[in-house]
Amino acid sequence: MFNLHLENTMHMDYWFKQPDQMMGPIMWFLVVILLALILSGFILKLARRYRGDKFHKEIMRRVSNLNLTVGILGLLWLFMLTEHVLLLAWRFWVLVLSLIFFWWLSRVLRYATKRVPFLRAESAAKENLEKYLPGRN
What is the structure's pLDDT at 81? Predict the structure, then answer.
């Protein structure tokens, strides 16, 4: 049975022991979410080919890598959980994967909101300067 109480999460034993096998709708919900991440990663990789803007391509590459990595590692963890593999099925790995996901997502969002406008302005200034230089038509 899946018991998630806040007082359980405060004990180290909760995070570092072999959890019960996940069954039923909760497991299938996780499988659907992880497969959706993997599918969206592949779709973004394919859609990136048809995008003209190099900055959009880079953002799509970063998001697709994030989705593929988290989806595959999540499915791998779910497999280890169902097979009762010691050490690799601990709940601790879900916590680590969640932290990595949110850190990586924050880096992608930071790139898209802070770095891309700066790079666009720099690229426009460079193009503006190069139109007056000889040798390039």
Answer: 84
